[in-house]
Amino acid sequence: MASYHYALTTKARTLLQVQEIQCQYESDIVVDKVSFHVNDGDICSLLGPSGCGKTTILRAIAGFQALTHGNITLRDHCLSQPNLLIAPEQRNIGMVFQDYALFPHLSVKDNICFGLRKQPSAQQNSIAKRLLDLVQLGNVAHRYPHELSGGQQQRVALARALAPSPDLLLLDEPFSNLDAELRKRLSLEVRDILKELHISAILVTHDQQEAFAFSDQVGLLHGGQLQQWDIPFNLYHEPSNRTVADFIGEGCFLPGVIGTETNTITTELGTLMGNRPYPWLPGSPVDVLLRPDDIVLSDFGGISATVEKKVFSGSATLYTLSLPTGSRVEALLPSHRNYAIKETVQITTEADHLIAFSREA
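-> structure tokens emitted (361 positions)
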């Protein structure tokens, strides 16, 4: 499949370089030859299902996990390689954990100042006050963690990690213990804070909506390997392989064949015009990825499809539609168009990014 990725045009200085790293537990390789880089000021995510290796990579960057291959550098200083492991406290990397890990016997202010103990009291107080104002907790500085809500505790954990002015902040599923609405709001607030301070960060998450909203760059992991490291737009519209296409977003693969013109694909929904020439010969069998927003209602003509399933989400409804041959597509339609199960609708396609994979793949 040809590459039609959209890239960020601004040139930034590389902060973190992860090169061909491999991690294993006893004889099991859990991270295999993973490479990516993080620029100064970028907020990134490692995304994937449980057991894919994303937390192991985060631990390796933090210094809690040794490498069996490759290396990790921060500002051109090597932190890890097979015969080298700089201690976590010497890396100037902050970390926010899933369970917050606040000290229950310390006040909010003292938790934030914990990593500043070698600095003068006046400087500690100044940093704590600035961070408390930044995370909007100035009025609870003398409370203890058990007196705070989950969202407030997470803000304290963030402020404590930011207090020593780390070069890089690592966040290990920090919002997973919060309810959905608070999780969404707090993740955006944390992003704004990091952007204001110009601090680079890497978030580990299994929630792709969270990763997309939070991050400038997202890396999708599967089976310990990095499938694609890219901006969210490209992960959705230009997946590099079937694994990415299956995991990111929603959609279905529709069988087709390459047309006489190599930028066309003939399918049950008609001949679809792609935005690129495809690398296969005319007549080659392919599978076309159609996202729910690629399928639209047709007022004139179109193909008949039967409603099999529907999921109402407020402003829109996601329909699973069965075509005459039994193939399925999904369509995201305005919720005021309310169709019943087994009702027939007329559909067509409007796909700006027509992604295809070889059937043999």
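The longest strand covers residues 14-25.
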